[in-house]
Amino acid sequence: MSLALLANEVTACARCPRLVRCRERAAREPPRRFARDAYWARPVAGFGDPDARVVLVGLAPAANGANRTGRMFTGDRSGDFLFAALHRAGFASRATSTARDDGLALAGAYVTSVVRCAPPGNKPTPRERDRCVAFLARELALLPHARAIVALGGFAWTGVLRALATRDRPRFAHGAIAQVGTYALVGCYHPSQLNTFTGRLTASMIDEVLARAARAG
After folding, report:
1. In a domain, 166, yes or no
2. Considering the domain boundaries, does residue 37 fall inside one?
3. Which candidate, 53, 178, 161, places its Cα nearest to that of 114?
4. pTM tops 0.90, yes or no
């Protein structure tokens, strides 16, 4: 199995009817600013450097972000914040990401998610999470140099622990670090507008998280 073959398997998945309906509805009924865009409207695989030492794990594709562009955190405000930080940290070749073919490349980092389809209200159910988490487990196994995992939010933190099938249950907090098997698991608030617009997550805060992950990796 390779990352490319796993990505093909991910994008063909239709195991969660509620998520299939949500991702396809978003493509049929886009907001006016995206009315002319051809939506991806399929599950979204991870992407990045196959030799990555740092893996960033989000919640799920945004309905009009990665569900539209086909690449995690690409084409939405969360991604704008995240990729700017990855660029500052030396992990990304550019500070913005708008499309799969925009030239952005990651070095030393890989970006993925726990759930691969856009969920209603950005809230997957526990059953949907547990159906999908095997993809994350397999993805991590195909990244042999990964040593640090940055969980972007509490949902991602729990998803990573489930993917690693560990009995340890360290608690999520921004800046928390837990050794889970061979990985340093690092907590970071999710770069959602709710967090970044209110100052709950600032540029300096995510920069420090990425620096910790780089040192651990």
Report:
1. yes
2. no
3. 161
4. yes
